[in-house]
């Protein structure tokens, strides 16, 4: 639709272009969805014609639309369809039970109750809920609660029975069912069992309702100034790619999507003729997602499988994005990438580590040598810092979600939220990268703090590069797509703690206003 838009000039602004060749400007001109001029007010305004819309920004700040390099859009949409169990709304099991009881009273017996975002560390009892806790609140409804990380779920007895999870149930590879040591019965806690749940639950709402939820999620992203995302769900397959194509076509999804496909789905993508970067300006196949974790106390998948998965993608020209939170996972991921590069050098292939939560100096050396990108989540410090301070050994805390040292070593670095794990608000991530403060104000690895300009880079050029979008978005330059955000204040000129509160005045995609009202 961008060709139908009249030319636009945004002027009287501070333009932070994120383009080293022209870092600052005052005005931007847009035609047919692309940036056609960037510069001083007088020079850009001289291009206006009788049909040009002129938006006087009255001193506001124009930036490239933010890019969130790693989130889960379908999961973000689904959170609006269930109960919000996040802190501060839920800070005790009693509060959780009260919430479930109220919802059960409004829901016919037998229908599912679904909640999202509980955090056992934020509960007064400092433990996961159990099936018995949920039974006490809603015994006539199957209940399913997602942990804040989305790597764990808690089910009540009725839900466990419907899914056939008994004391003799054998968890699938990579998954864990916690059992009570005394009785041997499942406690209700499932870890990394998403694939099993999807396969055995089926859809929990109608396609029409879910499309509406996707529209709300897109609007939430626009409200935060986000115009492009990396969709990083390991469950993505060929059907997911086609679903996103349909959602974009019918307007349910309005942001640009760089999609990672689960490693298990690579053969079907190849059989369908998909290649790296295949798609449209609003949807392209970015690469292959591989998830490593230690849910069972040992690394899964084992190193030999990781090596094979990485090689399969690498030799076909697909970059890999490897989920690595724990140090053994990071070591295994880097080893697999190194082996693939030694076997078939492809220095231009943009392999990534997702999270890289703990990164000692020796891994910095390996990341730099391999030129492997890191997609980080600085806002995790802001939301979960107290948990890290309590659970991570003091000598390892400086390794948490490093930024400064990665940038200094020339390691490609991108910012993201991992939403819905934390809200998809880039300015929260910017603030966290600058301050590195936990919720109670303590510093975590203060030597990793960066400037506001560096933090903004993570969510613009850095994230665009990691998603393979840097030729079209991520900076304000002539010829690029007119994905822009207008902020009420300059993040570089306000106290760091106030950065998350800066209002987004306008968000534009291809020059069309998708959020806010023109003055």
Protein described:
- With 519 residues, the chain is of the alpha/beta class.
- The protein has 16 helices and 25 strands.
- Strands 8, 15, 16, 17, 18, 19, 20, 21 and 22 form a 9-stranded mixed beta sheet that branches. A 6-stranded mixed beta sheet has the order 3-2-7-23-24-25.
- Strand 11 and strand 12 form a beta hairpin.
- Helix 11 runs parallel beside helix 12.
- The radius of gyration is 23 Å and the shape is globular.
- The mean pLDDT is 96.
As a percent range, the share of strand residues is 15-25%
Overall geometric form: globular
**Given the structure, what is the number of helices?**
16
Average pLDDT value? 96
Through-space gap between termini: 23 Å
Q: Largest sheet, if any?
A: 9 strands, mixed
Question: What share of the residues lie within helices?
Answer: 25-40%
Which features would summarize this protein structure in a list?
519 residues, alpha/beta, nine-stranded mixed β-sheet, six-stranded mixed β-sheet, 16 helices, 22% strand, globular
